[in-house]
Amino acid sequence: GAGVSQSPRYKVAKRGQDVALRCDPISGHVSLFWYQQALGQGPEFLTYFQNEAQLDKSGLPSDRFFAERPEGSVSTLKIQRTQQEDSAVYLCASSSGVTIHTQYFGPGTRLTVL
Amino acid sequence: ILNVEQSPQSLHVQEGDSTNFTCSFPSSNFYALHWYRWETAKSPEALFVMTLNGDEKKKGRISATLNTKEGYSYLYIKGSQPEDSATYLCAFESETYKYIFGTGTRLKVLA
C-alpha cells in the first residue's frame, strides 16, 4: 500500500513568508508525528496527533509554528513569518498506535529560508 | 534531558567489509529502540524495533543487538555493498510515544 507522502518536497521561502507543509499518512493510522531535522542533527520531535486531537505540541519551537489535522487524516504544519533558523528538513510519520509503536516516515520537506 | 548518541558520525568502508555502529541511550524508562536506514532523497526505512534486553534481530546481512541494562545497541552489516550507503538512525522510545533520535551514522561503501 501507499506509504506516507509529503508535499512539497522542497520549499524555498523568503524570510518573513508563511509556509504550509502537507503530510498524507498511511490510511487508517491513528497517530501522526512531525519532526524537524536541522543540518547535522537527528530529527527532533515537534508535535503529535491522535486522530484529530493534538495531544502534544511541546516540541514546537515558537508560536510561529502551528499544526493541524482537522479530520484525523491529512495534517498541515504551518510556519508563519519564517526565519533563517527555520531552515531544516521537516519529517512526518504515522503509526497504527498498536502495541509496537513503529513510526513510518515520509520523505520529508526540505525548507530553505533565504 | 534524555540523550541518544551514535558513533561513529561517519564511516567509509570498502565493498565486502563488515562494519558496525553504536547507539547509546538512557537505561531508564526504556520502552523500545528503533533502527532506521535513510537513503538520500528517500523516506527513512524501519529496520528493526527491539524491546527486550538481549534481543538480537536480523534482516539479510544486517543485524542488531540490544543491551537495555547498560543502554546500548549495535548494528552490524556483514559484507557491505554500495547499496548499503545511507544514514543509519537509532531512536529511543520511552514509555511515552515520543522518539528521541541520535544524530545518525553516515555510511559510504566504496566499490
Distinctive features:
heterodimer, A: 114 residues, mainly beta, seven-stranded mixed beta sheet, four-stranded antiparallel beta sheet, 11 strands, 0% helix, B: mainly beta, six-stranded mixed beta sheet, five-stranded antiparallel beta sheet, globular
How would you describe the overall organization of this protein?
The complex is a heterodimer of chains A (114) and B (111). In chain A, the strands form 2 sheets. In chain A, strands 2, 4, 5, 6, 9, 10 and 11 form a 7-stranded mixed beta sheet that branches. Chain A has a 4-stranded antiparallel beta sheet with strand order 1-3-8-7, with no helix packed on it. Chain A has no helices and 11 strands. The termini of chain A are far apart. Chain A is mainly beta and 114 residues long. Chain B has no helices and 11 strands. Helix content of chain B is 0%, strand content 57%. In chain B, strands 2, 4, 5, 9, 10 and 11 form a 6-stranded mixed beta sheet that branches. Chain B has a 5-stranded antiparallel beta sheet with strand order 1-3-8-7-6, with no helix packed on it. The mean pLDDT of chain B is 94. In chain B, strand 9 and strand 10 form a beta hairpin. By secondary structure, chain B is mostly beta strands. The termini of chain B are far apart. Chain B has strands at residues 5-7, 10-14, 19-24, 30-38, 45-50, 56-59, 62-67, 72-77, 86-94, 99-101, 105-110.
Order of helices and strands of chain A, N to C?
EEEEEEEEEEE
Question: How are helices and strands ordered from N to C of chain B?
Answer: EEEEEEEEEEE
Number of strands of chain B: 11
Strand content of chain A: over 45%
Tell the overall outline of chain B. Answer: globular
Question: Tally the helices of chain B: what do you get?
Answer: 0
Computed structural class of chain A? mainly beta
Distance between the termini of chain B: 41 Å
Average pLDDT of chain B, rounded to a whole number, is 94
Strand elements of chain A, count: 11
Largest sheet of chain B: 6 strands, mixed
Q: Helical percent range of chain A?
A: under 10%
The proportion of residues in beta strands of chain B is over 45%
Structural class by SSE content of chain B: mainly beta
Estimated radius of gyration of chain A: 13 Å
Percent helix among the residues of chain B?
Answer: under 10%
Q: Kindly state the mean pLDDT of chain A as a whole number?
A: 94
Largest sheet of chain A: 7 strands, mixed
What general outline of chain A do the C-alpha atoms trace? globular
